[in-house]
Amino acid sequence: MKNEKRGLPRPVYECTVCGKEIPWEGGRLRLVCESPACHGVRRAPSPIQVREGDGHDRIALLEISRRFFGSTHLHAFGEVFPLSKTSFLVAEFEGERAGFLSYALHFPKEDEVAVVLLAVLPGFQGRGVGRALQGSLEAICRPKDVHRIRISSTNDNIPGLYFYQRIGYRLSSLAPGAAELALEGHGEAGARGFGGIPIRDELVLVKTLDRHPKPESNL
User: What single string gives the DSSP state of each residue in 15-32?
Assistant: First the structure.
């Protein structure tokens, strides 16, 4: 049997493209369609610009929130956040909006910030937009003595949980049934999410910011 020596990473999966055995730390999540012919060729990184959103951007933000989440009033951390009032960042690629990050500064504590919405538009996913938005938020937080970022996710959001943990977030708390109740509030009770997983619970992840950040590695 392969890799029986204690301490070696043992393969748990195999690559669906080439068949190579993959140890735990060697796996990468990639979103692909159902077509057997699609190998999900990764796009090259692109130059991303991030700025504070303006009034025109807010209209687009509200439209995206309705499309992605079914509402412009998002339930997270036991609160309801109207996106018509939250601060937010916009990521652009070649003059086009590529993603949004809405946040509540000094929530729930003075030295914390909560990410209310993080959305990367289809067509720009896998290009570093989410990382660029997160990096810009961290740059806003540090001079304001904000040392922790909280982000909320539903139990089905496997790609999101993968991404957040790879950029330094740690699981903090679980609110069983919270997502289910939020969906009932805007007429989507029983909705299913990623991979057909029933949307039921809210998970909160927290990232503690280094006072002197290191250059980001290419994970």
Answer: -TTT--EEEGGG------
Side by side, the strands of the sheet bearing 112-120 are 49-52, 87-93, 96-105, 112-120, 148-154, 202-208, 170-175
Instruction: Find the helix or strand (DSSP H, E) in which 174 lies.
Output: strand 170-175
CATH numeric code, 49-208: 3.40.630.30
> What pTM was computed for the model?
0.81
- Write out the E strands in 64-147: 73-76, 79-82, 87-93, 96-105, 112-120
Q: What is the pLDDT of residues 57-94, one digit of tens each?
A: 999 999 999 998 888 999 999 999 999 999 999 999 98
On whether the CB atoms of residues 180 and 199 are closer than 8 A, the answer is yes
> DSSP secondary structure string, 188-203?
-TT-B-GGG-B---EE
**Residue linked to tokens 């956040």:** 81
The stretches of the chain forming alpha helices (DSSP H) are 55-69, 129-141, 158-166, 178-185
Place of tokens 């982000």: 151
Calculate the average pLDDT of the chain: 86
Annotated domain spans of the chain: 1-42, 49-208
